[in-house]
TrEMBL record:
Residues 114-136 are annotated as: Disordered. The keyword Acyltransferase does not apply. This is tRNA pseudouridine synthase C. It comes from BD1-7 clade bacterium. Keywords: Isomerase, tRNA processing.
Length: 261
């Protein structure tokens, strides 16, 4: 598998990480043998250092630095503790399919706990420190299908844009669970019946969450860098099946014409 390169300069390189690929070796998946770091290193014959992370089941824009000096320069952007969008020098955009009719626009302000080992986990307990976490949600489209999956005779879903203001681990997945609109395909925070329905009827066994945009001020050139990624074939197929593809296409046209939300 050749990784899709979305952006490259002398200091940084970004790929479109496939869903199911780990960024680097992890004790959580100790039997996994393929990692984005090694695959990209072998592909370009150069060592790379991940600037940030994406969960294994999440696809999309993943940025690497080509040397440790460049890594230190850009890490300050990603490590910002500010919870104010105007204070950020970096913007991330995600697309997700969630259960139910989501709010049209919502600022989710709910803390995420951080374990003593430094890993964020909203489900952890016993002395964990809660850290501020904010996410902006915008509904792109919604649909109701004539199938009873849980209590009601029909089932509702929304296509949403998510913009994390902070960068806690599992933040988007946990925030969507918190507002009772879990992401489809989320084995940890989602609803099993809906996940199974999408797997059996839509041939989708992935988390329907994709990092589609990354924008930042280049730490060396001070130019504004904008990197975009597609959502992948399976995700696209689901949107067509649900009838949400036109709403997504309209959204893409609007994004290309306007500055970050």
């Amino acid at each position: 598998m050749t990784l899709e390169i979305l952006y490259e300069d002398s200091q940084y390189i970004a790929i479109n990480k496939p869903a199911g690929l780990l960024v680097h070796r992890s004790p959580i998946d100790k039997y996994e043998t393929e990692f984005a770091v090694q695959k990209l290193r072998d592909q370009i014959s150069q060592h790379v250092h991940p600037v940030h992370r994406l969960d294994k089941p999440t696809s999309g824009v993943l940025l690497f630095a080509k040397d440790k000096t460049s890594l230190r320069l850009i890490r300050s952007l990603f490590d910002s503790t500010s919870t104010l969008p105007g204070d950020k020098a970096i913007y991330k955009t995600y697309i997700a399919v969630v259960r139910g009719y989501s709010p049209e626009d919502l600022e989710i302000d709910h803390p995420v706990k951080v374990r003593s080992d430094g890993a964020d986990d909203s489900s952890s307990n016993n002395g964990d420190e809660a850290k501020p976490a904010k996410t902006s949600l915008h509904q792109i489209g919604k649909v109701e299908i004539p199938h009873c999956i849980e209590t009601y005779p029909t089932s509702r879903y929304s296509l949403v844009e998510l913009k994390p203001v902070t960068g806690r681990r599992h933040q988007l997945r946990y925030h969507m669970k918190h507002i009772r609109h879990p992401i489809i395909g989320d084995a940890k925070y989602g609803r099993g019946r809906h996940n199974r329905y999408f797997r059996e009827h839509f041939d989708s066994d992935r988390l329907l969450l994709a990092a589609t945009g990354l924008e930042f001020v280049h730490p060396t050139t001070e130019e504004w860098v904008k990197i975009n990624a597609g959502i992948g074939d399976t995700f696209t197929s689901v949107l067509y099946t649900l009838g949400l593809h036109k709403a997504y296409e309209t959204y893409l046209k609007e994004v290309r014409q306007h500055a970050p939300r």
